[in-house]
Structures are given as structure tokens and as C-alpha cells.
Design a protein that fits this description.
The chain is an alpha+beta fold. It has five helices and twelve strands. Strands 3, 4, 5, 6, 7, 8, 9, 10, 11 and 12 form a ten-stranded mixed sheet that branches.
Length: 326
């Protein structure tokens, strides 16, 4: 038994000591809460950014995979069967890169977007006929296909009585013509590029620009391909006639939904202003590779100055069916 004043007597905590300990505990809990809150905010922001550009990433993968399959199915034949002089490379198919919205693009409702539009044929095996009389068991069926950016409403793709309000957005669009409807063999020039709305569907929202630069392998000092346009049927560069370009340098630029909502009705004007003067064909003799990289950087700087959160996806797609020779 311990008595007051004895050496074995234990002192209790004083009120001051309890207050100090409580204060320290509250301070530690506050610091921990602040760290957890900051970590949670960073994780939430990062997740939101990743989610915002997931559809653009999937669209970019779809675009590159499809483009790799483009073909012209070229063959060699006499230049003139009645008065042959030489063999020439020939093809009934067509590979076209043009400015989005110019003559030759599908007549689809909506305002053209920024960058290029690309149209080609590929063995994608899409057919509308199925069943006993169908073609689904055949392989190598050719489809006409195209990609371009368009600005417009998504009301055409909303289900009836949808609670979601229609939105005006930039979108990456894909056009695909079934094998049964393929008209490229019988139409001259760009006349085969025509469709109804059923052939067109959105691939991803908030894609503001599709940039396509057909280029040669390596970096030749004086490249034959130094333009953002390409036409395998009537290109002024004779070496491009009935040939696929060896490589396509592709850039897809997307913004997040938060930026699109914030800009509202000024979205189209703002994006058009940011794109002004960029991705135009360089002067003859200049290196388009340098301009491509500089224009991507300039576009990014302009979007950043407008407080627009964006993401650029850039890659080089080798054309598997290309047998390029100048």
C-alpha cells in the first residue's frame, strides 16, 4: 500500500498536460487529414483527366488500326491497250487526304471541323447481308472508309425521349460503306464518296483536330511528299499516282468535357482561332517534319493560353500495302 509522500506514490496527469497532449493529437490528426485530402484530390483529378481522354485514346487506336489496312490493290498494265508504249501502275481503288469539309467529303449534316479528312478502301469485311444468303463467311471483303472531324449536335444519336440534352461538340466521325454499296469501282474522281447518315457515326467526342501528313520513310533532304494533301488518282506528283504513301504521321488533338462546357457557344470559334494558320502545306524545299512538330507545339500553347485542358496523340503509321517508288 502506498501512502502520500512515499517514494512509490504515482502522480496523475495534470490538466495542463492533458490539454497539451490533446492539442498535439489534434495537430497530428489535422496534418494527417490534410495529407489524405490532398492525396484524394490528386487521385480524383488524375482519374478525371484519364477518363476524359479515354474515348479519344480508343478512337486514336481505332483510327490507326484501320488505316494500316488501307489498300489500292495495284497492278501493272500497258498504258494504252491499243497503242502500248510502257507498263504503268494502275488501280481502281482510291486513297484521298483532303482538307476537312472541302469538295469530295461525304455530304453529312454539320459543320466541318479542323484538320484533314481521309478516305480509302480496306478489307474490313463489313456487310449488311447476313443469314443463308449472306457474305459473313467470306474474307477480304472491301469497304470504303473515312475519318474526319465535324462540329455539330449529337441529337441524331440520342435515343428517343432521352433525358440527356443535345450538345454541340467537335467529334471524330467515321464513315463506312458496306461491301454491297461499294461504288468506288464505277465512279471517277471523288464521286464515290457519298453516303446517307446511316453510314456515318461518331467515334469520340471533343476531338478538335485530325492532322495527317503523308510522308516518305526516313527524312530525305528534298522529300517528294511535302504536302498535307494526297490523291492517288489525280495527284500532281506523278510518283503518287496509284500508290499509297509509305508512312502516315497522325496527330489527334482532344480537349476535355469540362473545357467544352466552360466555352459553351464560343467553343467552335475558339478552336477555329487556335487552329488558324497551322498545318498548312510548307513551301517547296522546306522540311515538313519540322513544321509538323512546331505546329503541334503552337496549337498546344494556344489552347493552354485559353485555359483549355487538352491531350495530343501522335504516331507514325507505316502503310503495310505501300510499295512506294518515286
Amino acid at each position: 500500500m502506498n501512502f502520500p509522500g512515499s517514494k512509490n506514490c504515482r502522480r496523475a496527469f495534470t490538466l495542463v498536460e492533458l490539454l497539451v497532449a490533446t492539442g498535439i493529437l489534434i495537430l497530428i490528426l489535422g496534418v494527417m487529414f490534410s495529407m489524405i485530402s490532398q492525396t484524394s484530390n490528386v487521385w480524383r483529378t488524375s482519374s478525371a483527366r484519364i477518363e476524359a481522354f479515354q474515348s479519344a485514346r480508343r478512337a486514336f487506336d481505332t483510327l490507326t488500326r484501320t488505316l494500316e489496312q488501307a489498300t489500292l490493290n495495284t497492278y501493272w498494265d500497258y498504258d494504252d491497250p491499243n497503242n502500248p508504249v510502257a507498263y504503268k501502275r494502275k488501280s481502281e481503288l482510291h486513297f484521298l487526304i483532303t482538307a476537312s469539309g472541302t469538295t469530295g467529303t461525304p455530304k453529312i449534316p454539320g459543320t466541318p471541323g479542323a484538320g484533314q479528312a481521309i478516305f480509302f478502301q480496306a478489307p474490313l469485311n463489313r456487310t449488311a447481308t447476313t443469314g443463308i444468303a449472306g457474305y459473313e463467311n467470306l474474307t477480304g471483303l472491301i469497304n470504303a472508309c473515312g475519318f474526319y472531324v465535324e462540329y455539330g449536335s449529337d441529337s441524331a444519336w440520342l435515343p428517343p425521349h432521352a433525358a440527356t440534352q443535345a450538345r454541340e461538340r467537335f467529334r471524330l466521325m467515321q464513315w463506312m460503306q458496306n461491301t454491297e454499296s461499294l461504288t468506288v469501282y464505277g465512279k471517277a474522281g471523288n464521286a464515290w464518296i457519298a453516303s446517307d447518315a446511316a453510314d456515318v457515326f461518331p467515334v469520340a467526342d471533343n476531338v478538335i483536330a485530325l492532322i495527317i501528313w503523308p510522308k516518305e520513310e526516313g527524312d530525305p533532304t528534298t522529300p517528294v511528299l511535302n504536302s498535307y494533301s494526297y490523291d492517288s488518282r489525280s495527284d500532281a506528283r506523278s510518283s503518287a499516282i496509284n500508290q499509297l504513301p509509305p508512312v502516315l504521321k497522325i496527330a489527334l488533338v482532344a480537349i476535355d468535357e469540362t473545357s467544352a462546357v466552360r466555352l459553351g457557344s464560343a467553343l467552335q470559334t475558339t478552336v477555329t482561332t487556335c487552329m488558324a494558320g497551322l498545318f498548312e502545306s510548307p513551301p517547296i524545299g522546306s522540311n515538313p517534319r519540322d513544321q509538323f512538330s512546331e505546329d503541334i507545339k503552337t496549337l498546344g500553347d494556344r489552347l493552354t493560353n485559353k485555359s483549355i485542358n487538352y491531350r495530343s496523340f501522335v504516331t507514325a503509321v507505316p502503310m503495310r500495302e505501300a510499295k512506294w517508288s518515286p
